[in-house]
Structure formats: structure tokens, C-alpha cells
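Hi all, posting the design record for the shared folder.

TITLE: backbone redesign
STEP: 1 of 1
STRUCTURE INPUT:
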């Protein structure tokens, strides 16, 4: 009887760890990434107003869609969208550099404040 010794099991475990390191969460078979939405400027906001705020850049890989986490992470209000000056097709790599912020309370958003969380999900484009 011949016994073949390989590192195949080790390699498979290493690949699983590597794959898991590339994503921040899994929901069934869907895996995604979480990105902090951080203010890149100091802004005064008033209760009830929606205002664009410059944020630290968030890279959005091609064929990924972006959702805003519904849990409020800033006491003054909520992020409802993120984007860039020139919208690009979903199939292309993009960068978000501003967010739309809706203020529930009046106050000051300081540079480097956490405004929200972006959820990046991969999609298979069919057309």
C-alpha cells in the first residue's frame, strides 16, 4: 500500500482563512464588507435639514452595491446616501467622498466624527 503525503489539507485551511479575512460578514452564502463613514470636515447641522458632508474616501469595488446601515452611529442624525461628484456604473471601481446626512438634532459634526456605516455587497450583473 502506498501512502501519498501532501499539504493539500493545510492549503485548503489557509485559503479559507484568507477568504474569510477579505470579508467582514457573511449572511448565508453572501459575504460583504463594512466601512466606517467618517467626516472629513467640520459642519454645523440644524434639526430637520439634509446636508452633504465631505467624508474620508471609501473605495467601492466594481460590481458592489452600497447600503447604509440603519443603526444610528451619530447622535445628531443619520447618513442616508454616499457617493461622488460623478456617478459611475456599478461595474466600475468607484469612490465615495461625500454623504448626505439628515440631522435629527442641531449641533456640530467635527472632522473625524463617525457618521455611519456603509455595507458593501457583491452583485452578479446579468445585463
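Okay, here is what came back for every position:
SEQUENCE:
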Amino acid at each position: 500500500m502506498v501512502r501519498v503525503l501532501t499539504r493539500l489539507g493545510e492549503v485548503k485551511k489557509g485559503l479559507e482563512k484568507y477568504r474569510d479575512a477579505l470579508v467582514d460578514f457573511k449572511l448565508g452564502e453572501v459575504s460583504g464588507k463594512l466601512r466606517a463613514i467618517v467626516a472629513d470636515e467640520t459642519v454645523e447641522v440644524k434639526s430637520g435639514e439634509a446636508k452633504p458632508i465631505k467624508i474620508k474616501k471609501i473605495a467601492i469595488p466594481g460590481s458592489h452595491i452600497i447600503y447604509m446601515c440603519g443603526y444610528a452611529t451619530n447622535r445628531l442624525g443619520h447618513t442616508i446616501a454616499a457617493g461622488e461628484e460623478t456617478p459611475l456604473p456599478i461595474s466600475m471601481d468607484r469612490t465615495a467622498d461625500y454623504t448626505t446626512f439628515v440631522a435629527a438634532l442641531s449641533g456640530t459634526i467635527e472632522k473625524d466624527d463617525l457618521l455611519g456605516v456603509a455595507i458593501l455587497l457583491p452583485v452578479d450583473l446579468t445585463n
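COMMENT: The CA atoms of residues 85 and 97 lie 8 Å apart.
Let me know if anyone wants the other runs.
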